[in-house]
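One record is given unchanged without comment:
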Amino acid sequence: MKRLAIIGGGAWGTALAIVARRAGSNAVLWARDGNVVAAINERHENPLFLPGITLDPAIVATSDIDAAIAGAQAALLVVPAQFLRGVIGALRPGLPEGMPVLHCAKGIEASSLKTMSEVSAELLPNSPFAVLSGPTFAAEVARGLPTAVTIASHDRALARCFTMALGSSRFRPYLSNDPTGAEIGGAVKNVLAIACGTLQGRGLGENARASLITRGLAEMIRLGLAKGGRAETFGGLSGIGDLVLTCTRSELRSVAVRISAPRLPAGAPSLKGWRPRPPSRDWRTSLESRCPLVRPWRRCCVTARRSMR
């Protein structure tokens, strides 16, 4: 598995192309934005999403999705969760039968409440899959700072192939056979990161944040078990590892801090993708799991949005 099609030209997709090249794999990057494609091919950079990072000249970008997967041995799906279904629809006609896919985006599809692998299983039933998750800031990965991740699959041989295609001394994958737990950890930690930012913006202190992370992990585990994951998965990189990173240092947390402060600065940003009824809250209802932290987080967000009007 030495030629990879990376579907998604954002910060994480570009960082994974760098990771692939460090591991000795060839990477073709698909991006929708023609300006991103031109910058990667002509100047070997992606200033829109990864400013200040020089790319290996061997990394090639294209806006033609069929060209991206032509000759590839596997596809890495790195588009945002709410766009995955549409991108797979465009990808499917040219995707070779049985080509493995690696899910690298974190989230839940809002309309169906499906994980990323559930969406692809519906649309690509003959493609074996694995999940990449864990504490990964794209800029740090791109700069070559030490990073450890989880690659999870029911097919251990497939997970090992992706490990060999991406692993290096600076990017260490650990294997798991619980992709469900890995995906749920990666999705739910975003809700808890926003909650932590809300606490900080309201000046409620570090004790409250530590309590929220701890009890949030307990809720994540209950939700994961209800969905079919295993408890031990959440004690690893895709669970507590990603949760701690996102709840202490992340864009989501930082934005939540600013919008939930008692007095908002001029031009304060809004939460990207905020919805009055977040998918994780719907999961709590549909799976009958006890996740009481979601309700007060939602009330804080509603209060913050009203104060911005």
